[in-house]
Amino acid sequence: MSDTSTGKVVVNRVMSLDGFIAGSGHTMDWIFEHMTSATFPEVMAATGAMLIGRGTYEVGKRMSAENTGYDGGARFVLTHRPPDEPDPEVTFLTCDIEEAVARAHRAAGDKNLEILGADVAAQCLQRGLVDEILVYVLPVLLGDGVRFAPPGLHRIDLEPLGNVQSGGVTMLRFRVRT
């Protein structure tokens, strides 16, 4: 990823042991049974901006009562249709994925750009825009839901960088091989 920012572009995913990043009906409340913003505070501290897909943004809005306390910096939502009522805390982007990543990456400054959302992450991975992937594996089997990678994602080789455990959560870190 070439940009003036010195931070990395990082796909950040919470996943059930059976490979789902959201449950049936896009539910994600199961995450907060195992994680809080204090689980891996170094990730939040290293994040300067987030690029989020519209679906993930909508799920997050429904879950706002959970108040996770996660501050990932400036929030950008990539969408084909911005909402009728703007959200003053979010910048909605209708550009292509490369431009969206570049804009959000610049906003992150010397920190990381965090990519959230299955479709946005897959687009970034397919276009070689991702430096690292963080996966938080939670001790739960969901049985159904949104898979880690959507169908059609081509093979992407990863280099393991390490793993850390906090309670029942294991964080795996990988570099995307180019």
Explain what this protein looks like in three dimensions.
- By secondary structure, this protein is an alpha/beta fold.
- The chain is built from 4 helices and 10 strands, in the order E-E-H-E-H-E-E-H-E-H-E-E-E-E.
- The strands form 2 sheets. An 8-stranded mixed beta sheet has the order 5-4-3-6-1-7-10-9. Strands 2-8 form a two-stranded antiparallel sheet.
- The longest helix is centred in the middle third of the chain and has 12 residues, at 97-108.
- The termini are close together.
List the helices and strands and how they pair.
Layout: E1 9-16, E2 20-22, H1 41-46, E3 47-53, H2 54-62, E4 74-78, E5 90-93, H3 97-108, E6 112-116, H4 118-126, E7 132-138, E8 146-147, E9 158-166, E10 169-176
Parallel strand pairs: 1-6, 1-7, 3-4, 3-6, 4-5
Antiparallel strand pairs: 2-8, 7-10, 9-10
Task: Describe the structure concisely.
This protein has helices at residues 41-46, 54-62, 97-108, 118-126; strands at residues 9-16, 20-22, 47-53, 74-78, 90-93, 112-116, 132-138, 146-147, 158-166, 169-176. It is α/β, with parallel strands linked by helices.
Distance between the ends: 10 Å
* β-sheet strand percentage: 25-35%
User: Rg from C-alpha positions?
Assistant: 15 Å
Helices and strands, in N-to-C order?
Answer: EEHEHEEHEHEEEE
If you average the pLDDT, what whole number results? Answer: 88
What is the general shape?
globular
